[in-house]
Specification:
Number of domains: 2
Strand order of the largest sheet: 6-5-7-8
Helix content: 40-55%
Structural class: alpha+beta
Number of strands: 8
Strand content: 5-15%
Number of helices: 19
Order of helices and strands: HHHEEHEHHHHHHHHEHEHHHHEHEEH
CATH superfamily of the largest domain: 2-methylcitrate dehydratase PrpD
Distance between the termini: 49 Å
CATH topology of the largest domain: 2-methylcitrate dehydratase PrpD
Low-confidence stretches: none
């Protein structure tokens, strides 16, 4: 453990959650939150169409007798716990949901549980914004503080484990829990957190195809909300779950803990500003390679598809070892298959428009994917462990020309090439309209962009 550990880090986090108010959020933070919320809802609605989401929704929707919240995109009213689970699982189903650095999808466990609880309590939009803010912030801080060493990462890793506490924080905020009660909510949520399972979801070639459980964000969202509901009704749990040598970082399987990253600047600075909305429906680790193609196409230097003999991708170990499948079996598997994703980009069916079942067996796509090889560049590993996702792509043509481009970190969505408001509207409209139609989609978008003036969240949600 490093850094000067507060003797009561759990109390500091609990106080931050219980005292969070919309009025304390900077205007830039509010505008970022609205974009993140819109993106999160759109991903949940779009993800509902996948086979994995349909199965989870069918099973989980029957949990609980209350009908206090809705499954986004279906109109079905279910319990708060079921809505938290299903909507969070759907939000990550397409892998189109936002990311923080190399290791979190914070929106999946901040937005869906906030909407579920907000609908139950008829929350004002301002309270929803504050809850989502703490949901992001707590998940990000816990993850950064407990992030394992590179050696430990090769054995055990779990995004959802950390993010469970973000879900609990969001729910506690909307339920109006005081600091002491929020301690117990965080403790109960930590005990509900899923095990760190990333190494067994099927990333390694011998374990393919990928598990539909993916990061298990449904369980993380539900576990966090359950912790808050239990604490609200007087349930006792650990008051110090984040503290000491046996704290949550150890429970989550990490081998190190930087206490300074947990509480430094808490309430004064929001790290959610570094969260990026995804331009492609695939694992963020693949985006630098996809950006290479995008850059060459925009500059006019991309060789004609018919002239490309082979493509070589040089990248960090995680990507080169585990994302090499040219012919994925389903949409989930495709999100982690770099040759296939690059082939889509090259045949102008970009993952930026989402992934489609019909492309999985298309010879035009698979023929290009077969020409793409992925290689490990050891020099890029250090950059990855410092938060970057570098790739270098080499095109070798039949005419003998070699075209090469390198991207140190995903560009589209970064400040130098921002994912604009227009880009966001195109993405979200494409995900929302098939489920809700044009008029209801427009009403929802306008409501979220004006969320601080919405007196009851339920009034902007389509059936």
């Amino acid at each position: 453990m490093t850094g000067s550990m507060s003797p009561d880090a759990t109390g500091e986090i609990a106080r931050f959650v219980s005292e969070a108010r919309f009025e304390d959020l900077a205007s830039a933070t509010v505008e970022q939150l609205k974009r993140l919320i819109l993106d999160g809802v759109a991903n949940a609605v779009g993800g509902l169409s996948t086979a994995a989401s349909r199965i989870q929704g069918s099973v989980v929707s029957g949990l609980g007798s209350e009908r206090a919240a809705r499954v986004l995109g279906s109109g079905e009213h279910v319990s708060v716990l079921a809505a938290s689970y299903v909507n969070a699982a759907c939000a990550n189903a397409l892998d189109f949901d936002d990311t923080y650095k190399t290791f979190l999808h914070p929106g999946a466990t901040a937005v869906p549980p906030s909407f579920a609880v907000a609908e139950k309590v008829s929350a004002h939009g301002r309270d929803v914004l504050a809850a989502v803010a703490v949901g992001y912030e707590v998940a990000i801080r816990v993850a950064e503080a407990a992030f394992p060493s590179p050696e430990r990462l090769r054995q055990v890793w779990g995004f959802a484990t950390w993010q469970t506490l973000g879900s609990a924080a969001a729910a506690a905020s909307l339920l109006g829990l005081d600091t002491e009660t929020t301690r117990h909510a965080l403790g109960a949520a930590a005990f509900n957190a899923p095990v760190p399972s990333v190494r067994k979801i099927g990333l390694e070639p011998e374990d393919r195809p990928l598990s539909w459980t993916k990061n298990n964000y449904g369980w993380a969202a539900m576990g966090g909300v359950l912790g808050a509901l239990l604490a609200r009704d007087g349930f006792r749990s650990s008051r110090t779950v984040l503290d000491g040598d046996h704290g949550f970082w150890t429970m989550a399987g990490s081998d190190r803990f930087d206490a300074e990253l947990l509480t430094a600047g808490l309430g004064e600075e929001f790290r959610l500003g570094a969260t990026r909305i995804k331009p492609y429906a695939s694992c963020r680790w693949t985006h630098s390679a996809l950006d290479c193609v995008r850059q060459l196409r925009r500059s006019g230097e991309l060789p004609p598809l018919a002239d490309i003999e082979r493509v070589e991708v040089h990248t960090f170990r995680e990507l080169a070892s585990n994302f090499t499948n040219p012919a994925p079996e389903d949409i989930v598997d495709a999100q982690f298959s770099l040759p296939y994703l690059l082939a889509l980009e090259l045949v102008e069916r970009s993952p930026g428009r989402g992934l489609k079942e019909s492309d999985l067996t298309d010879p035009a796509v698979l023929g290009v994917a077969a020409r793409i090889a992925v290689h490990h560049d050891e020099e890029m590993d250090a950059s990855f462990h410092h938060g970057q996702m570098p790739s270098r792509v080499v095109f070798r043509t039949r005419s003998g020309k070699v075209v090469e481009v390198a991207v140190a970190d995903p560009v589209w969505g970064a400040p130098e090439d921002p994912f604009t408001d227009d880009d966001l509207m195109v993405k979200c409209t494409a995900l929302l309209e098939p489920a809700w139609g044009r008029a209801a989609t427009r009403k929802l978008i306008e409501g979220i962009l004006d969320l601080d003036r919405v007196t009851d969240l339920a009034t902007i949600l389509p059936e």
